[in-house]
Amino acid sequence: MRTLRPVVALALLAPLLTATPAAAEPPEFGACPFDGAECAELSVPLGEGSRSISIAISRVRATGTPAEHRGALLVNPGGPGGSGLEYAVSKGAKLPESVRRSYDIIGFDPRGVGRSAPLDCGELGGLFEHPAPEPVPAGRRAESEHLQRLRAMAEDCLQHNPDAAWMNTTSTARDVDRVREALGEPKLNFLGVSYGSYLGAAYAAQFPDRVGRMVLDSVVSPDRWHDFDVRQAFAMLDQRDTLFEWIAAHPEFGLGETKQQVRKTYSTARDGLTGSFGPAEFDNLVYKALSRTERWEPFARDLSAHVHHGAPLSPALPESDPESRNYEAALRTVKCADSRRPTEDEVIGSLRALRAADPEPIVTGLEATTCAYWPEPVEPARFGHPDMPPVLLTQAEHDPTTPLDGARRMQARLPGARMVTLHDSYSHGVFASQRNPCVDDAAANYLLTGELPADDLDCQGSGLP
Questions:
Q1: What residue range is the signal peptide (predicted)?
Q2: Helix (H, G, I), strand (E, B), or coil: what is residue 15?
Q3: What pLDDT does residue 54 have?
Q4: Half-sphere exposure (CA, 13 Å, Cβ side) for 239?
Q5: Pick from 52, 121, 118: which is nearest to 81 by CA?
Q6: pTM of the entire predicted model
């Protein structure tokens, strides 16, 4: 197995000279590379030295009267690695009208993403070669080869990105505060979805007195990234069983009349894939479908067409276009820069535990396994603060991407936080996503008035499609 060059690892851990950053200048907004917003760039310190990078931000102006205006609402779509520049437009359009009238919606590309000093990890250990190797190693030889690929991923990232240690959530939270300051906002009003919830909680840890109205949607746990990824993988198994039952209840797909029959059809199709679309690519497709129930019918129809007519299945990430390469690079870099790395034994132990639970686990989301070969983080992420004000969390009961138990653990780190739980919901993304009036009204009222529910709130979802 290859080893990291010592100079790379040492460079990442070397302390940098400290300097107090200058006050953030008001941004000069101009045209965006897309319609519906105005864009600007903001200089932020890279780390603890004198070097800086530019953060791209966008703004969609509030549509209401001056009397209705409540300032800026920063939004983040998740990831890590998700570009948020256009998110001000796409998410802004879905927000309740009262929120759109009251807030300028501010999007941004976090450091390492999109137009903000984008990361590129080169070949990422062969991640963009298709078909990829079988993603679930069985046996010691396959496990050893799997570890070698993870080491290659880490080595590619570290050699291509000497500043990788500073591409972490703690630094991104400081960038968010620079955006707040540049916009002249005394407090940060924030909507963070998925990883955005993790970012919001990390902001509160550093700047508790600057937290304004904060909605954290589909909440990531405060656990080490590897532990979060493994918990998610087990949740995906439960979700896939639910999907199999749902397909079995829809005979028009012709994939089986029972969950067991659907499972057999699924496994046979996966095992029989040839060409550039193999089991790893299939698992990527399934992973994406499992996160949102509106994707279940298209997935079932595609699988049916493949089984009965030999139709090709839809392409799935990771692809080799610049945007996808950046996403995959940032996803792993941020996770590895945020939390304590797993050992090789922990990585293999997790894979064996998943295989013991199911012979065909979905391990697509186990990106933090490559962190076994990274240096320890210089700034591990921290969450919440005793002096922060209460904030609002929104969460689907059966979300497999950010499971409910982890969301509750994050809630415990945020003093006085209220959680709105959407029961009988199986999709990732709740506020201004599933169009549930109970959730949307509670979150909008909080953003407009600052009033939280008196206690945790239970809302009823629509169930399976």
A1: 1-24
A2: coil
A3: 97
A4: 31
A5: 118
A6: 0.94
